[in-house]
Amino acid sequence: MTVSYKSQKVGNVDVFYREAGATNAPTLLLLHGFPTSSHMFRELMPLLADRYRVIAPDLPGFGRTKAPARGEFNYTFDNLAKVIEGFTQALKLDRYALYVFDYGAPVGYRLAAAHPERVTALISQNGNAYLDGFSDEWEPWQAYWRDDSAENREACRASLSADVIENWQYRTGTDPRRLGPDGYTLDIALMARPGAEDIQLDLIRDYRTNLERYPEFQAYFRDHQPPFLAVWGRHDPAFIPAGAEAYKRDLPHAEVYLLDTGHFALETHANEIAQFIRVFLGRHL
């Protein structure tokens, strides 16, 4: 199945996105996380496009999306969500299932909570909506949330290094025989672009607002009971399995599968995740 590469203007942001599948098929909107881009879905999309219209945009500040510089565009999660909502409206996506990962979770859940009538199902891959899901590795970020001093900001810069991206985010908990170099190599290259690190540090500071929205997201789950699937790398050093299990508190029919891999589960288990999705969406859409 052919994947097309396109762009869509949303205000002063030129959103790059990947698309595959028939335009009249049920839509699955794929939202990536940090520090990656829609490239993370390169193996998954062809595995679903025979049955679904799959669309994966790059968030502002990531990948090939062209957004204004810091100072001209405020890099917050509220603004990322506004751009993606504008993107869905520009593409006339009135009904869609959401696949959310990492940063994509608070972006997607903002859309779902604001417009529950548009969302047909939710799939979370290592994307939190509960405090249960945080490991003990978040202290530098939490310190920055509590106090946005220059010292605390600088302490978070290590999270953006090539070593942390490759060895902590990608390799932790994975079978090295199944992990190709493509994902982390591209992420490292894009993170090295001028200005990229300061944009990411702004988003790290703003991440605290996501936790403030968790009660709103959880109320949406309870009130609307969207079909929900979690496909989670159980060895993720940042987002631990308790975060996947926590969804069952508000979504008692949630389906939760823990895979023997790490944070970037699609890098090693795209075929397995695609099969879970096909069965899940086949039952609910």
Please provide a written account of the structure:
The protein has 285 residues and is an alpha/beta fold. The protein has a single domain (4-136, 210-284), classed as Rossmann fold, CATH 3.40.50. The protein has helices at 44-48, 77-90, 104-114, 139-146, 150-155, 162-170, 182-191, 196-206, 208-224, 242-245, 266-284, and strands at residues 4-10, 13-20, 27-31, 53-57, 96-101, 119-125, 228-233, 255-259. An eight-stranded mixed sheet has the order 1-2-4-3-5-6-7-8, sandwiched between helices. Strand 7, helix 10 and strand 8 form a beta-alpha-beta unit.
- Ends apart, CA distance between termini: 21 Å
The geometry reads as: globular
Indicate the radius of gyration in whole angstroms: 17 Å
Question: What is the overall pLDDT average?
Answer: 97
Reported by name, the CATH topology is: Rossmann fold
Total tally of structural domains: 1
Structure characteristics:
globular; 40% helix; Rossmann fold; single chain; 11 helices; eight-stranded mixed sheet; alpha/beta; 285 residues
Topology of this structure?
Layout (H helix, E strand, L loop, with lengths): L3 E7 L2 E8 L6 E5 L12 H5 L4 E5 L19 H14 L5 E6 L2 H11 L4 E7 L13 H8 L3 H6 L6 H9 L11 H10 L4 H11 L1 H17 L3 E6 L8 H4 L9 E5 L6 H19 L1
Helix pairs in contact: 2-3, 3-9, 6-7
Quick recap of the structure?
By secondary structure, this protein is α/β, with parallel strands linked by helices. The protein is built from 11 helices and 8 strands.
